[in-house]
Specification:
Elements (H helix, E strand, L loop, with lengths): L2 E6 L5 H15 L3 E6 L3 H7 L5 H10 L1 E4 L13 H8 L4 E7 L12 E7 L3 E10 L6 E6 L2 H18 L3 E6 L7 H13 L6 E6 H10 L6 E4 L1 H14 L7 E5 L4 E5 L16 H13 L3 H17 L13 H10 L3
Parallel strand pairs: 1-2, 1-3, 3-12, 5-10, 8-9, 8-10
Antiparallel strand pairs: 4-5, 4-11, 6-7, 11-12
């Protein structure tokens, strides 16, 4: 049976790593049909809109999207399209695995943890955001709801149970932000009581970051709020070699979107040296979501073998290969 998915090639290196990823998925014979749509700078240039209605309609219809990086300016310009997509489709759970690969330049071995980040509330909602006309003051409210906290915590526990994880750690700042993250912590404690088979603990966010650097092996599944999750998931990527190995799944009730979480890297766009691993690993998450876990595992294993071999990996992974050679090596292990 063919599954139709929305494909967004993205900006910068996006089209290059998407080409690589689709080639690998075709080699896997994953039974996917691609509905190509525009978003970001490419969409603005062609249609005058950063996020065309046709793209939103396609995702609504297909319910599955695979997305390469979109450009988000720092400190000005248009707002994050990633945030806009998550909000529009209520993609409340962001799932970011961090897994060690032999052959990478990382400080640790045998890291295998998952961060589940609340995706639609908190600081990134920008409730009531404004800047004084003279630039002297800026404000933005942080708003969470009990329902929002409960559904992401429950998602984390259900995920842990489904994939055989043994522990969930709730990360918060309830000692200072007593109302906003205090609610998150209280809800997490309540939900944890419904999962007696899963060990539960909680950590203040600054301590959690320190513990991740000192003893990352103590973590299994981390669940946290939007802002803290954004920071912690990148920290976890650093434990295993960087954002080039960091995929992300954004899950809602009706729609799921899978992406490379790194930026569009315009400085290397067109040079043919972009590392496709993050998007490939996101595609593996997508295959899991589509009940093709056997093919997802084959893909992860092929990536691991190529990285361990090292000869044809891209320069950021210490190799001398380019994107196409890296892709060739992965495909050879899948035929």
């Amino acid at each position: 049976m063919t599954q139709r998915i929305t494909v967004i090639r993205g900006d910068g290196i996006g089209p290059e790593i998407m080409k690589s990823t689709l080639r690998v998925l075709d080699t896997l014979d994953a039974g996917l049909e691609y509905d190509f749509q525009l978003a970001g700078v490419a969409a603005q240039e062609e249609t005058g809109e950063l996020l065309p209605q046709a793209t939103l309609d396609s995702i609504t219809e297909n319910r599955i999207a695979l997305k390469a990086p979109l450009t988000t300016p720092v400190g000005g310009g248009f707002k994050s399209l990633n945030v806009a997509l998550r909000k529009h489709f209520d993609l409340f759970a962001n799932v970011r695995p961090a897994i060690s690969f032999k052959g990478t330049k990382s400080r640790y071995e045998n890291i295998d943890l998952i961060t589940v980040r609340e995706n639609t509330e908190g600081a990134y909602l920008g409730e009531g955001a404004w800047t004084a006309p003279d630039g002297s003051r800026a404000e933005s409210k942080m708003v969470v709801t009990r329902a929002g906290c409960e559904r992401v915590v429950r998602f984390a526990f259900d995920l842990a149970r489904r994939v055989g994880r043994k522990k969930v750690t709730a990360v918060h700042k309830a000692n200072i932000l007593k109302d906003v993250t205090g609610m998150f912590l209280n809800v997490a404690r309540d939900v944890a009581e419904e999962y007696p088979d899963i060990e539960f603990n909680d950590l203040i966010v600054d301590n959690a970051c320190m513990q991740l650097v000192m003893r990352p092996e103590q973590f299994d599944v981390i669940v946290t709020t939007n802002l803290f999750g954004d920071i912690i998931s990148d920290l976890c990527a650093g434990l295993v070699g960087g954002l080039g190995l960091a995929p992300g799944a954004n899950i809602g009730k009706d729609v799921a979107m899978f992406e490379a979480v790194h930026g569009s890297a315009p400085d290397i766009a067109g040079k043919g040296i972009a590392n496709p691993c993050a998007l490939l690993l996101a595609a593996a998450q997508m295959l899991d979501h589509l009940d093709q876990s056997d093919k997802a595992q084959r893909l992860r294993q092929a990536i691991a073998e190529v990285i361990a071999e090292g000869d044809r990996t891209t320069p950021d992974l210490g190799g001398s290969g380019n994107t196409e050679q890296f892709t060739d090596a992965i495909c050879e292990r899948l035929v």
